[in-house]
Amino acid sequence: xxxxxxxxxxxxxxxKPFLKNEKVFKHSCNKLDVFDWLKDIDxxxxxxxxxxxxxxxxxxRKDFYRLPEDLELEIGDIIAVEANPGHDIGIVTLTGETVxxxxxxxxxxxxxxxxxxxxxxxxxSDIEKWNSAIExxxxxxxxxxxxxxxxxxxxxxxxVEFQGDKIKATFYYTADERVDFRELIKLYADGFGIRVEMxxxxxxxxxxxxxxxxxxxxxxxxxxxxxxxxxxxxxAARCQQLSLNTQKLAxxxxxxxxxxxxxxxxxxDALKDFPNYEIVLKTKKGNAIHQKxxxxxxxxxxxxxxxxxxxxxxxxxxxxxxxxLNSKNIIPEELEHIVIVKQEDKDFEVGVGEDxxxxxxxx
Length: 363
Description:
By secondary structure, the protein is α+β, with helices and mostly antiparallel strands. The chain has four domains: 120 residues, no CATH class; 69 residues, K homology (KH) domain (GMP Synthetase, Chain A, domain 3, 2-Layer Sandwich); 64 residues, no CATH class; 70 residues, no CATH class. Helices cover 26% and strands 21% of the residues. The strands form three sheets. Strands 1-2-5-3-4 form a five-stranded mixed beta barrel. The chain has a four-stranded antiparallel sheet with strand order 9-10-11-12, covered by helices on one side. Helix 3 crosses helix 4. The protein starts with a helix and ends in a 36-residue tail after the last helix. 22% of the residues are buried.
């Protein structure tokens, strides 16, 4: 069995039906793992433990479930939970008071909102059926793609998730326009013998499910640790002085890369100290026009109007001082340049061959 299928569920190894699985789903190999920062804090004696747990399923799907009174769970337990219809199998990611804060963060009221139930800890038969359901997902996805192509539907099946009891499957798809898949659902239900649910997702969610290698050489962030997708604007790239080339700035999902937002706040804070780029610096040698900026080195590059091609570096302090003098109708002789020393590229030297091959031979 390919361990990649189980990694989408939260672990790099498959659970064994007749073992306790203490080390399975407990060693932080999935992006949905959560650190319980309240686990070492004991509750007051008069306080009852919170009766809800957080449960994860395939990829980025999580939900909250209510515990029965006679059941105690720990992080990493494999459990059977309520589904519509039947039951599903998930892994506990959080218990206790931390779950209360997670529900508040997602605007879920445990007293008013209807919360599904936890049935029991997964039995050996539940885990066996769950394992067999996971094994069907890849083959089902390829067959589903072929059926959709035969019907000439403008859509792409990107992932399939079987319910733990194998009576229902969710087909995740992407499409540019509205798709009439009524005939498709009938063919899926007849061909696979299951209840079918179609769910449309965006291109970012599709990329997170498929995975891949980014231009940085690492696995893409959305499939390893990123769980929320914030909008990325071209203004974030412009502030970082990146070339507005869509081929370089676009990720696997054909949208702007999420990593453009990572340093955006740092650039915004750094740019607060810089003057307006449109301000022309007046000197007796000529008017200096801004060309580019090295933000974190506090260097601005200018060139004189009579010689645009010759750029020179000026410190931020010098630019501010010149602007202040110009505001007082004082024109300096010229701008103080910063001498940028360029390091010469050294050829790569290989140590092999510099010594004699017979240097270890006895004379």
